[in-house]
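Appendix B, record 7
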Amino acid sequence: MCGIVAAAAGKNIVPVLVEGLKKLEYRGYDSAGLAVIGHSEIERVRSTGRVAELEAASAGTSAITGIAHTRWATHGIPSERNAHPHVSGSIAVVHNGIIENYETLRGELTAQGYVFTSDTDTESIAHLIQSTLKTEPDLLKAVQIACRHLVGAYAIAVIDQNQPGKIIVSAKARHCCLAYPTPATTPLPMPRPCCKSPATWSIWKMAILPS
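Structure tokens (predicted):
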């Protein structure tokens, strides 16, 4: 069972991503990885070993926006090239679930000139969103449009090197949990839906503690 962790903050979130993956290890996985918005490009670290190995490999990585993933192989063998996140141009994607029409999408995107480097269904999502960004530069809207072409059950998290501090999450027939710090007096809104699809959302409110 795949696991997703995503975070944006005013400080280095790589330790947060790694710690989140450690808490998901009990679910089982065969590879792990993370991607962050770097100074000039998406920085990605992946490993077919344990999360502890990913932690060591990413020790020199620092960023304030990123996504991470533990993978249980469904499409493609356990390997670094099949591990998430998957990158296309300026974006990185992590994904839990199965995209039933990925072979059709793969064919269409290959015809557009996109080169696939993995055997996964997830890479189709990354290229699809990157392709959509050519005509719709807003990441939220681009993900909304791209999700209309996805058939299956999924949860995804997306970051864009050109839109730092922003993480777009979309879910269909999957559970997502959102948590962010907010003053106790501030009403906590429900997440803005990325696409019209059935999904279960949990909101965790974290109080801001005095320093």
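Remarks on this record: Residues 181 and 206 are 5 Å apart (CA to CA). Residues 122-133 form the longest helix (12 residues).
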